[in-house]
Design brief:
Chain lengths: ~270, ~375, ~270
Amino acid sequence: MSRLFTLAPLMLFLGLAYLIPLAGIMLQSVTTPEFGMQNYSQALGDPLVWSVIRRTLRICLSVTAIAVVLAYALTLLWLNGSRGMRVFVELAIMIPFWLSVLSRTFGWLSLLSNRGLINTWLQSIGVISEPLTLIRNEFGVILGMVHFLIPFAVFPLASAMRDVDTRVVLAARGMGASRLRIFWQIFVPMTKSGIIGAALLVFVFSLGFYIVPTLLGGGRSVMVAELIYLRIFQIPNWGLAAALSALIMLSIGAFLVALIKRTEGTMK
Amino acid sequence: MNKHFQQDQVLLLKEKLESGALSRRGFMQGLALLGGTSALGLSAGSLHAADKDMVFVNWGGDAIEAMAAAFGDGFSEKTGVKVLYDGSGPLEGSIKAQAESGSPTWDLVDCDPFSGQALGKQGFMRPIDWNIVDESKIRDGFKWEYAASSYFYSYVIAYDATKYDTPPASMADFFDAEKFPGKRAMYKWGAGMWEAALMADGVAPEDLYPLDLERAHAKIAGFKDNIGAFWGGGAESQSLLLNGDVSMALIWNTRASLLHKDTDGEIAMTWAQGIVAPGSTGVLMNNPVGEKAAMEYIAHSQDPESQVKLFELLGNGPANPAADALVPEESKFFNPTDPANFAQQTPLDMAWYEENYGSALDAYLGVISA
Amino acid sequence: MTVSLKPGPVTTAIGALTAVFLLMPLLAVIPVSFTPKRYLSLPKGEWSLRHYEALWDKPEWGDSVLLSLQIGVTAAVLATLLATAFCLGFWMLRPKAGGLLAGIALLPMLAPPVVSALTLYSFLQAITPWNSWVVYDGWLGVVVAHTVMVVPYAVVILMVALSQVDRKIDLSARSMGANLWTRIHAVILPNIRFGILSAFMLSFILSWDEIGVTLFITSVKAITLPRRMWMGLRDNVDPTVAALSVLLIVLVTLVILGRLVWEHSQKAE
């Protein structure tokens, strides 16, 4: 029984500071403006909500895939690259954390806008005559989000790769397996939990974004987090906002729990 | 914190003095005032605000210093109540959360009149006390029960003057990509944009309300390929024009006049068919310093000279009609409420916004993000 | 943990390009910090140190850095402790209601940030009259809010780290009669050291950067660094933000290079 004390502190803390007040807010989804499920039916019947959800999934899934792949290569290089490379990569991972979102967004704007460094340079060497539209569109959104999230994906990946049993890899090499084969059939599966953790972290994180999309996306790429922001702050309709949030939390939550159960099952 | 705040104030005053935004006399007064507030017992380094501090929540940035210089400092001098400016942005939902708790920490907010009205009717705002606040110091047609008119700003056309031989002179020109080639930018949160689209479509300014949203959205949807961005904040709108990402934009006059001044007219603005919007001050129900002090602050901020100072620092048009004449001749062009400019513009109808803004914005976002 | 797998040319190319991509905004951020103007802009011809001087002259920037540091470290310690205990329990006991418990632990990460902001605001409003430490617009209030917000990320990292630990080690320790504390202390913790460190780092960074919730639970006293940076957002972003970023980057670079030199000298001995 005493072992339960390991689980209890976090549960108590979150229960008090988060669950109870959250329940109060979520309750509004069935009580505001009157008792019933009308907020849920309104949220589900709203074409704007659906188009926003579709865009959010499209962007966040692309961002997750790109960020995790790039972070994987980066982490490999960080842990196993040549000495100079390791230092360079470590700097590249650590430095963006200290660039506030504001300065890095400004950085992207000055690099990629019509009169930005890249367009000016391309025009001066005669590659293009008219400036390329590199931001203020979905590409800008994805670029900004991937940039922000790669360093975060490195944490779980590094955590998993550090603890890979190198003897297995060495044994495989000793038995003459090709590099590619070792990588895909041995190394990648052994770091699966890191990949899942990184993907989960990046995906969930990206769902909550609304500042980067706004600034680099030209205002058009409204995503779920911003829609809820709108419903809570800009034009308050807390009942509807709560219903929408509940639906989102339930769907991601169910997905995650299933995922955890599955990985638990395979990692006995 | 107070110590730092005061040091910062001195620096600011000095900066303003150097840039000419403040006269030497104003600077000395400001210094005296800063000395005065510390004499009032606001011990340096204390994290706890004195009992009589008043919290005014505005939209941050330059507005913090400008409002302090125009209103807050003078008010403290007169009454001994120190005004702290919190720049976190009094969005309607934030005010609601504050007021709903029953013991808000905010006193006054810089809000849209229609938000003030909507919140007031739900019991979250105090009605303006017209015995303290002077009704004769606000313009006709801008009086509300829960929101006191505080300043004016406009949605105007700003354009890259190097690109066009003849400047745009109407909303029809803004929506005409053949006569005026180049990308456009519009406001992400809808206000003023419906009016612009309808005027471009031939609706006379006096016939705008109630807005024909379908017609406005059809106009915007048909023009969408020419719109490079929808901006959500002032700095963003400015950088869109400066970076050359768009060559014409509907932006706030405060931004447009800064661009006009900073680029020596390379990016110019016109008041033609502008849409003028009122800002207002509201008081939260059960606010910490109490009703009287809050109303007195509002009354204090009606002083025409203080309002001219706010105009000089921020570009906001004065709410008190008596202030227009006090604006220096060379700045009159940039004052949204100057009679010559006001006559070219249409005011936003707050009653319509109170009723319809939520659903209209939903539809608008659907159109622009499709 | 020496040579496990030397990355091939493809991996090296992708990884190196990614690193370059991560550093690209510096091309703009470093020059911007030297702009003579009072808003973010690339300097044209004239370079100025005024924004570095501003960091020095306006002590409120220093105050905010210290406050964010204090909040970040406290929140990260709390989050790491809570998450480590929880994950250890979760891993060793494999509780029946595991799905539910994990769901609760991850909830603050799943909820839209603005909903969390509203939630934590109402929590702090509710407890402010009952105590004088954990309050609205007070630093410990921010610590509690940040701990709530970052703890799910620490849980994810630690779960990943634990999933790499071989259960057989723990089982054999158990069969040899090691008690719970010995198993944790001598067997499991050493195996997830890197995970714990990562969880702490991640928690600290998330708190250091947190703005969505902070904006909502502070007003005029607890002005964290991001809060100070965002104050100007509606008008102009103060280039002091860029100057501060550059200073922090120089500091981080020095730490990393310093550690390298130190490791090198250790090896040489």
